[in-house]
Specification:
21 strands; TIM Barrel; 8-stranded parallel barrel; single chain; 12 helices; binds ligand LLP; alpha/beta; globular; Lyase, Ornithine Decarboxylase, Chain A, domain 1
Length: about 450
């Protein structure tokens, strides 16, 4: 795989770091030409901790968790925010979500294990996944998780059998694919008809399975779930999904006399990766969803359900950045300029996978305009290994520290050890202090499982 041809129409735009607005973590600042986050000098931090390095602005993360809760609760008191831990997971972020009163979305046993290790309240855990294994379901049920979001009929029966073994009744949701085409990359679109996730509404399949769920012992159907996709800018897609889900709840009441008490509308709010992106605010997202739920419930004469949403990216992406060191450079006239960094597709696969766009700056030249268009390529044995393709950057020199913004979501959690690359440490910064919350992987770690 190679990179897409360079877009020679792109011009360096003279924007400096602080002009990147919503892309930046909230405490980003430039002092003496150095980028600071959380009151910590990123150049010094890179020197001390090594690169590549994932850095999180803790105040930003906390702010966004509180903002989500406030935005929903002030419009809709019976609401909760479920943090989608797949976007970024380590013990410290789970502790933070716990302190901020969030619930936790875990996909499978590995994410659940992290929650258990830090004593996250199990009643606030929601278990997802389109193919949870028997062992994962067994772990979840014996741990006493709050809700299992059931994805198939096979799973429904499995959950019931395991709960019976444990002598309990498990609260469940059914995941429905509402048939809404969200306006985003096709790989992360999940609510449309052709999806491996959940129960399709086609040919009444979801409805028939719901009848089975109501009549199955050892499970209690408390709610419905949907997730229409990720990195969504057009809020109307969420309102459309609400309409489908509430109409479904009304039909369940009319035909089975059964009350669905909870509605989980999933995650998906888009964020600013580049200065050109104009995502919706959390308040507008909350307004769209809560207004649609109230309106649709009134139309169908339904009581308001407990309402939940499951943001991941919009909590973590802009709070996180990645620091790299420049190793070498190469200019191919008429083609592009490569600046090689000491990480790449192993710490950020999103560019290779989705042609994601990111804004970079040089942390030790952060006050200067970004006058060149460059490609930040990684160190891996793959031509498609780039983190930033054709974006403005200050004139780079060997040993400069490059900061790539908005890497807090789906970077660390999708990282690999390709080419024997140890995964980066994760550092939280706040009020001038830096704390390592996940240490850098060592060479010993890499081979610790080998016999
Ligand atoms: N709930 C469920 C059931 C999900 O599957 C997801 C994300 C979320 C919530 C959180 O969605 P968010 O608010 O983060 O959009 N690796 C891709 C994104 C995959 C999203 C998977 N599901 C990326 O890097 O863009």
């Amino acid at each position: 795989m190679s990179l897409p041809a360079s877009d020679t129409s792109k011009r360096a735009d003279q924007r400096t770091t602080m002009d990147l607005g919503a892309v930046l973590p909230k405490t980003a600042a430039v002092e003496d030409d150095h980028l600071h986050i959380g009151g910590v000098d990123m150049v010094e931090l890179a020197q001390q901790q090594g690169t590549p390095l994932y850095v999180f602005d803790e105040a930003d993360l906390t702010f966004r968790m509180q903002e989500y809760r406030r935005a929903f609760r002030e419009r809709y008191p019976d609401s909760d925010i479920i943090y989608a831990s797949k976007s970024f997971l380590n013990k410290e972020v789970v502790r933070l979500a716990e302190r901020e009163g969030l619930c936790l979305d875990v996909s499978g046993g590995g994410e659940l294990a992290c929650a258990r290790m830090v004593d996250f309240p199990m009643q606030r855990v929601f278990v997802h996944g389109n193919n949870k294994t028997f062992d994962e379901l067994n772990e979840a049920i014996s741990a006493g998780v709050g809700r299992i979001v059931v994805d198939s009929r096979t799973e429904l029966r499995r959950v019931a059998a395991i709960a019976k073994e444990h002598g309990t009744t498990q609260n469940i949701y059914l995941r429905i694919t509402p048939g809404v085409e969200a306006d985003t990359h096709e790989y992360i679109r999940t609510g449309c008809e052709d999806s491996k996730f959940g129960f399709t509404m086609r040919e009444d399949f979801a409805f028939t399975c719901l009848e089975e769920a109501i009549n199955t012992d050892n499970v209690r159907l408390v709610g419905l779930h949907c997730h229409i996709g990720s990195q969504i800018f057009a809020l109307h897609s969420f309102a459309e999904a609400v309409e489908v889900m509430v109409a479904f709840m009304a039909r369940v009441r009319d035909e089975y006399g059964y009350a669905i008490e909870e509605l989980d509308m999933g995650g998906g709010l888009g964020i600013a990766y580049t200065a050109e992106d104009e995502p919706s605010s959390v308040d507008d997202f909350a307004e769209t969803i809560t207004a649609a739920v109230k309106r649709c419930c009134a139309e169908h004469d339904l009581p308001l359900p407990r309402l939940l949403v499951e943001p991941g990216r919009s909590l973590t992406a802009n709070a996180g950045v990645t620091l790299y060191r420049v190793g070498n450079m190469k200019t191919l006239p008429g083609i592009r300029k490569y600046v090689a960094i000491d990480g790449g597709m192993s710490d950020n696969i999103r560019t290779a996978l989705y042609h994601a766009e990111y804004e970079p700056t040089i942390a030790n030249k952060a006050g200067q305009p970004r006058t060149e268009i460059v490609t930040l390529c990684g160190k891996h044995c793959e031509s498609g290994d780039a983190v930033v393709i054709d974006m403005p950057l200050q004139v780079a020199a060997v040993d400069d520290i490059v900061c790539v913004f908005a890497t807090g979501a789906y970077n660390a959690t999708m990282a690999s050890n390709y080419n024997g690359q140890p995964r980066p440490a994760v550092v939280f910064v706040k009020d001038g202090e830096a704390r390592v919350t996940t240490r850098r992987e060592t060479y010993e770690d890499l081979y610790s499982r080998d016999m």
